[in-house]
Amino acid sequence: MSDQGLQDTGVVKTWHNEEGWGTVALDHVGLTVWVHYRHIVAGPTEYRSLAQGQRVRCHYEVPGQDGYPARAVEVIALLPGPGGVHQSPTAVNP
Fold first, then answer.
1. pLDDT confidence of residue 57
2. What mean pLDDT comes out for the span 50-60?
3. How far apart are CA 65 and CA 52, in angstroms?
4. pTM for the complete prediction?
5. What are phi and psi of 33, to 5 degrees?
6. Which long-range contacts (CB under 8 A, 24 or more apart) does 55-59 make?
7. Predicted pLDDT of residue 15
8. Which of 14, 30, 57, 94 has a C-alpha 20 to 30 A away from that of 24?
């Protein structure tokens, strides 16, 4: 059974641009979340990518995928990363 509606902020730990996936270290729960590019929130003309060290807000579920304890279901960039998407923090918390 998976838990839904979980969220936290975190930092992109790894990003494999050529494969379209990476990991995020969450700030408050101590989990590493598996992220696929399809779950990055972006506009219709924005490239869905992240960069190592980039701050994000992550909605996730457990159990995870590929050996990770959690899997992202939505990732919103809080600060722009090189070649990545950007969404302002005010858009995250209207």
1. 96
2. 94
3. 20
4. 0.77
5. -105, 135
6. 55/9, 55/10, 55/11, 55/79, 56/9, 56/10, 56/11, 56/12, 56/24, 57/7, 57/8, 57/9, 57/92, 58/7, 58/8, 58/9, 58/10, 58/24, 58/26, 58/33, 59/5, 59/6, 59/7
7. 96
8. 94
